[in-house]
Specification:
The structure is a homodimer. Chain A is built from six helices and three strands, in the order ααβααββαα. With about 140 residues, chain A is mostly helical. In chain A, strands 1-3-2 form a three-stranded antiparallel sheet. Chain A binds a DNA duplex (30 and 30 nucleotides) through α4. Chains A, B: This is MarR family transcriptional regulator.
DNA sequence: AACAACTGTTGACGACACCAATTATTGCGC
DNA sequence: GCGCAATAATTGGTGTCGTCAACAGTTGTT
């Protein structure tokens, strides 16, 4: 009987859990969790996003986005602005504090991935990243 | 600002979630979940295991193992036997039904990983698996 | 004007990780 | 042998999370 470790899908599942845990412990002191961090990082790339866009791109349920943006607003890292053309929507934008937080934690964030990929040489990490990106495909990530 | 997809750790986290979801939908009709399947597959390799061993090797909390083995016993896929040398421990063994279940679902299980790795050529899948196994390291997986 | 579709929001439910405490048993020091 | 720390399985509680249903406000269509 072949062992479970022989299954690439299960390896991905296991390492995904470990990676998420590492990220969360890294974010623990800031009061945020990985989900908040993902939203912040996404907002930093697009200069304002609708909540439904956050939901679609990050893969979280729309109802989850509500709470995440609430938390980020409470911390002063993001804020909701009314959408000019559609009064149903609200545009979430990064505040200066939020941008500063990303700058301050960027280095520590890289260390998390470094720690996870310790067993691999730089070239191997590059290969792994390329393959994972291919698997992630066009969709979110 | 670099995008979130540029982070290998986050990619792993995301793909881990997707892989787990794929496995769970594949197992949905059988009433099991990925955690149960992991226990079954492990039991198939060792011909009987203590619950603390399952906890350590699969990375689940000991309290979680209790419920998982309960479910597997209820389905007739595994059973607890008293350990001869230590009356505290109980040895969990696969039943014939459990072994048959693994045989019947083996092919479908492979399809799950195949579906996940669709974008990759066979040689690339091999490379990915090797790298992931290296990252997983000596410990569990 | 009537109606379907969409956005954000709230609420509920189950699954799950994590930790503390308990019971039964074992092994160790004395 | 006796006392005591350590261990295996179990129970329970807490917080997080994914998923779905329902809702109000708004938009677009016809």
């Amino acid at each position: 009987m072949r062992t479970l470790h022989a299954d690439t899908g299960y390896l991905l599942y296991r390492l995904g859990l470990r990676s998420g845990q590492l990220f969360n412990t890294f974010l623990q002191e800031s009061g945020l969790r990985l989900r908040h961090y993902a939203v912040l990082r996404y907002l930093a790339t697009c200069e304002g996003a609708l909540q439904r866009e956050l939901s679609a791109r990050l893969g979280y349920d729309p109802s989850a986005i509500v709470g995440l943006v609430d938390d980020l607003e409470k911390l002063g890292f993001a804020e909701r602005r009314p959408a000019p053309d559609d009064r149903r929507s609200r545009i979430v934008v990064l505040t200066e504090d939020g941008r500063a937080f990303l700058r301050d934690t960027d280095q520590a964030g890289r260390r998390v991935t470094d720690e996870l990929l310790t067993p691999l040489a730089p070239a191997e990490r590059e290969t792994l990243h390329t393959l994972l990106a291919r698997v992630a495909g066009n969709g979110l990530a």
